[in-house]
Specification:
It is built from two helices and 19 strands. With 417 residues, the protein is mainly beta. It has one domain: Porin (Beta Barrel). 38% of the residues are buried.
């Protein structure tokens, strides 16, 4: 009897240890508020000026609504296994969606191993090197209201159809990428390294009449590498990042328009984990933060270049710099302000392999001011105002010049769980 009781006690102890060594956490964000704003796109000539005014209740204003599950298992010897699955929440559903996750956005989905004192490796859909650095160094907190050229170019609640010349959503960087191996080192002497490798390739042999010259068959290969270096010393943080992604379409498909990674068209920038098309997409990001005690200062610089892989003489450029501060005015009240300037040049026109027109560069400006009032660690009220403008420029040969001005605001409540 005693042996049976001892065996049961031992089994219970082992079960308790195993349970303590594994954990699964459910987390997420629900953010809803009143948003509004105005946009003005000026086109010289007969088409005149297009003005829009929008307002209403929207979700994901300060933080994109999401639902996630993450888990960690202790494998012993300083080794752990981990996973994350995160998807967007359809908080703005009109009732026609049949899914809680009606916006269809898989944000992150990866599994990996970590060794204490060395670092970790993860495989799957995950943040890009640049996006991870921006999340750590943005004075605005990477919200979804206009007003930052570096870390976000959304215009929540007012649409983007009237926004031209480089002020489309998230033109500056790609946020997430699939089919990726990610490496993150532990910190050594204040330094840590982050790197990714992306690969997804398809090669098709075309045996019917016409072959690859018609755009069928050939290679459709997606590859990419990225590296980031961080350094922290007392109240100073520095980061330098470089990433390059290539989507090599059929090189004979001269008419294939280059599309940025994360985009579904040539006019919008990266904001999801979608692959690009017929493009070499190169980005760099440098930033510094310093905590002065009463406030924290931020300096950021970003550049991105997209080159057509079927017409390498054609490319588009984007660059921006931003300064900002963020501070707790009281233990419950936090505020921030940021201002940025940038330039954007759209893709050149190419005919017969020759550049026939190069658009001028748009001069871009933006600013944002905002505040959080924390009711608890997980719940806050927010108020955000931002504005963005682009100068007159002719995007195509002989076309009218265009410019755009946008202002955007939001009042709401955010809960994290």
């Amino acid at each position: 009897m005693k042996k049976s009781l001892l065996a049961l006690a031992a089994m219970g102890a082992f079960a308790s240890v195993a349970q303590a060594q594994s954990s699964v956490t459910v987390y997420g964000v629900i953010d809803e508020g009143y948003t509004g704003g105005n946009s003005r796109a000026a086109t010289s000539g007969a088409t005149g000026v297009t003005k829009k005014t929008n307002n209403g209740i929207t979700g994901g204003n300060e933080s994109t609504n999401r639902f996630g599950i993450r888990g960690v298992e202790d494998l012993g010897g300083g080794m752990t296994a981990f996973f994350t699955y995160e998807t967007g929440l359809a908080s703005d559903s009109d009732g026609t969606s049949t899914s809680l996750f009606g916006n269809g956005a898989t944000r992150q989905a990866f599994v990996g191993l970590k060794k204490n004192g060395i670092g970790q490796v993860a495989l799957g859909t995950q943040n890009t090197v640049v996006y991870d650095a921006i999340l750590a160094t943005a004075a605005t907190g990477v919200n979804n209201i206009t007003g930052s050229l570096v870390d976000n170019m959304s215009t929540k609640g007012i649409g983007t159809s009237a926004i031209t010349s480089g002020t489309a959503n998230s033109t500056g960087y790609e946020t997430r990428i699939g089919n990726t191996i990610g490496l993150k080192s532990d910190k050594f002497a204040g330094f840590n390294v982050r790197a990714t490798l992306t690969a997804s390739s398809t090669n098709t042999t075309q045996t019917t009449t016409g072959g690859a010259s018609t755009g069928s068959g050939g290679a459709n290969n997606v590859t990419g590498t990225a590296i980031g270096l961080d350094y922290g010393w007392q109240k100073l943080f520095l980061t330098a990042n470089y990433q390059s992604y290539t989507a090599q379409s059929n090189t004979n498909a001269q008419s294939t328009a280059p599309i940025l990674f994360g985009s579904t068209s040539t006019s919008a920038g990266g904001s999801s984990n979608a692959f690009g098309a017929n493009v070499k997409d190169v980005g760099q990001y440098y930033a510094a933060t310093y905590d002065f005690g009463v406030l924290k200062g931020f300096v950021q610089y970003l550049t991105r270049k997209a080159t057509s892989q079927s017409q390498t003489s054609a490319y588009s450029n984007f660059s921006a710099q931003q300064i900002g501060v963020r501070s707790f005015i009281t233990p419950q009240l936090e505020g921030w302000i940021a201002g940025s300037m940038g330039k954007y040049q759209s893709m050149q026109a190419v005919t017969g392999g020759v550049v026939t027109y190069t658009p001028g560069q748009s001069n871009l400006t933006a600013m944002q001011v905002g505040a959080n009032y924390f009711l608890s660690k997980r719940t806050n009220l927010y108020a955000i105002y931002g504005q963005t403008a682009s100068s007159n420029v002719a995007l195509t040969n002989g076309a009218n010049t265009t410019s755009a001005n946008v202002n955007n605001y939001a009042l709401g409540v955010r809960h994290t769980f």
